[in-house]
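Help needed: design a sequence for this.
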């Protein structure tokens, strides 16, 4: 929908002269927020102390909600552990994650390995325990065949070969004299799922406690 020029000019004046936020302009002129943002996005207005305080309160509230959600998921992990640990390979999966799993992001569960046995076990449990889609990514050398790698991993994992992403190693061309490499690349299986990541944290803690 096209708007008259005078409406756009008024939006700009409200932004510059009265330091209105995008939401305030949209409400004042009964406009779509996206339209207002497009008109005034390049006009920087420093936040007032009131606006900064409100933003900080909102951020703190979001952080508190996220922390509460993680804590509830961790408690759920503790509750479900006694039954899960009875199942074959569940402890293997948790121990494998302790050694090979990604710990960098509390919102993502990921295992990276060149051994298909490890990847298949990790994929099986992540798929079963999580609620989102699994992502597969292969890191490979420049002289390796993408088609061979795709075929190899598709034969081991219950996925369409089109689901696998490929990432060439940045130093691949500098390793012409290397004597060893991962024959079929290194595959990462991952899922963005903060609920699963928190439960997994509980299972890791419980397994480690048994080692003491």
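Sure. Designed sequence:
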């Amino acid at each position: 929908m096209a708007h008259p020029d005078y409406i756009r000019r008024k939006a700009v004046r409200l932004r510059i002269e009265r330091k209105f936020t995008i939401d305030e302009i949209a409400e004042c002129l009964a406009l779509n927020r996206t339209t207002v943002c497009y008109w005034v996005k390049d006009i920087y207005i420093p936040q007032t102390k009131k606006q900064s305080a409100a933003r900080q309160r909102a951020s703190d509230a979001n952080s508190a909600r996220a922390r509460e959600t993680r804590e509830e998921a961790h408690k759920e992990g503790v509750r479900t552990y006694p039954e899960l640990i009875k199942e074959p390979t569940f402890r293997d999966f948790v121990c494998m994650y302790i050694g090979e799993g990604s710990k960098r992001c509390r919102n993502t569960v990921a295992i990276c390995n060149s051994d298909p046995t490890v990847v298949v076990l990790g994929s099986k449990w992540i798929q079963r325990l999580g609620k989102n889609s699994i992502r597969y990514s292969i890191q490979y050398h420049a002289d390796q065949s993408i088609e061979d790698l795709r075929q190899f991993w598709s034969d081991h994992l219950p996925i369409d070969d089109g689901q696998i992403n490929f990432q060439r190693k940045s130093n691949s061309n500098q390793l012409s004299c290397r004597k060893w490499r991962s024959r079929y690349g290194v595959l990462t299986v991952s899922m963005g799922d903060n609920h699963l990541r928190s439960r997994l944290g509980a299972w890791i803690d419980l397994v480690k406690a048994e080692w003491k």
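The longest helix spans residues 49-84.
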